[in-house]
Amino acid sequence: MNPRRKSAxxxxxxxxxxxxxxxxxxRAIELVWTTSHKLTLAFGxxxxxxxxxxxxxxxxxALIVDAxxxxxxxxxxxxxxxxxxxxxxVIAEGLLVSxxxxxxxxxxxxxxxxxxxxxxxVNVMILEKALTLELTHFENSDFYDKLTRARREASxxxxxxxxxxxxxxxxxxxxxxxSTLLIAFSPWAVLVLILAGLPAFLAExxxxxxxxxxxxxxxxxxxMQLYLETVLAREDHVKEVKLFGLGxxxxxxYRNIFRKLYREDRDLTIRRDSxxxxxxxxxxxxxxxxxxxxxxAAIASRIxxxxxxxxLMLFRQGQSAVSAILSAVGGMxxxxxxLSTLYDYLETPVEDGRGAAIKGPHPDDGVRFENVTFRYxxxxxxxxxxxxxxxxxxxSLALVGENGSGKTTLIKLLTRLYLPTSGRILLDGQDLRxxxxxxxxxxxxxxxxxxxxxxxxxxxxxxxxxVRHFEDEExxxxxxxxxxxxxxxxxxxxxxxxxxxKWFNDGRELSGGxxxxxxxxxxxxxxxxxILVLDEPTSAMDAAAEATIFEHFRALTKGKxxxxxxxxxxxxxxxxxxxxxxxxxxxxxxxxxxxxKLNGHYAQLFLLQARGYR
Length: 614
Ligand code: ADP
Known about the structure:
Mean pLDDT: 85
Low-confidence stretches: 1-15
CATH architecture of the largest domain: Up-down Bundle
CATH topology of the largest domain: ABC transporter transmembrane region fold
Bound molecules: adenosine-5'-diphosphate
Largest sheet: 6 strands, mixed
Radius of gyration: 36 Å
Strand order of the largest sheet: 6-7-8-3-9-10
């Protein structure tokens, strides 16, 4: 990670604050520029116009007053001409003021359009990055916080930073043009103008840093709030929340989190605004001191009445330009801090495209685990311990073991969602690490027990098994037949085009067993996969249906590797090879007959279940 960014984020003290202001401005401007050249250019041009015109207004204002005073004091003969001149100047000032209003409208129009485009762009960037991440990232709570922070604030921040940068430029242009006139009165006036704004700015920078630190600390709480919202207001949780009466309890937690956050926010806001008011007073005092100074100069006839009004206006507007500049810098500092969370997320290192192999040296070797040990990133104990396993093409394997014995983890390793802590896994004699991502995924079809229920068409739920044929109706039908979803489809009026789930209009909800048949059909979309894995996807079906499905599954996967996790021995016994896992180690292996003869753990479990059926 960029060390400068890290320090700006971890320890946003004042000195680094000034540095921090500009670290991300370039990237933010680049982002806005690449989002829309035209809008950015228009934005820039209007900003300059809106910056210069106020000085012209002040200047014309002085001419008007002096013309009026001259007209009052003039001989009647030339009074008419002077009056006309004064009126022309009034019209000119009116036009200038209209032009300022037009430029400001234009600026806000550009901003609205850019905001919409940029919000979408940043969200897409965040999601595109999410596609490249590993499962481990999503299971890591620190990383999740990063993602939440990036999504919550950062989509509005790049534009805000650019708006402030441009606002800063506009006010700087105004200030410079004010100063060129004001300097004629006194260079000291320019200096006083600038110095009087500094204290308020320093306070602002400090409080921005505090606000950012609050924002960082609170991510876990904000995430909890988002989570509670989901639990309280989403269809798949409503059943339990209602029946267990969890609603009020969760809502209370939700409220308490808000109260805590609100208290911190309130304290900070009060401090920020009290200081802001106190230090702002310095500005007011300076303004009136300058007022007195300019008035005295007019009385002493050092300047005309017209110049007096002009200098007063310049000083007043100059002061608001200074405070706009300073608060823009304060805001930019804040935006930079927030943007650092966006880039922190976007720059999360990912292991780049591991291998390039698209086939292995021994295509007949199938899958091999060699002394594989695996520990989850935060776990103390390994979940799998020294696993040796060989499954040849055409063979079926059943994994048996209590909950938590490591069956699903073994599948996650086989599908390279995780890499082994030690040892290696080979496919066709080639280490999984060396396989090309896409080639490997093509070979394996997996249905996990917590498969995803897409709120999409029934056919698309099946088509999800193969993105190349996601919308291919013919393939939906074939896979639906193989996965035994076809009988369900027949009962639905719109067949494969029935929307599933209740999120969208006319969606149909299915039973657990019916969903599992859809998921099984999804596995059959992967006609090119020669390793098929079913991780308890039939648990919601009755034993007879499961046995039928597995027989059917075997028939359809002839010559392929089939791996099955099930708690039903009626199904398990059909596998060529059965592996019994206990606390992450293989304790027994063999065919059903061999294991029964062994009279060990497997036989015991088998008899226990058989007794239940008697
Ligand atoms: P099984 O499929 O046999 O029920 P799992 O493979 O799901 O078992 O889990 C094995 C062990 O690994 C359990 O003790 C579980 O707590 C732990 N575990 C599972 N997933 C994770 C994870 N993402 N992070 C940390 N530990 C996990």
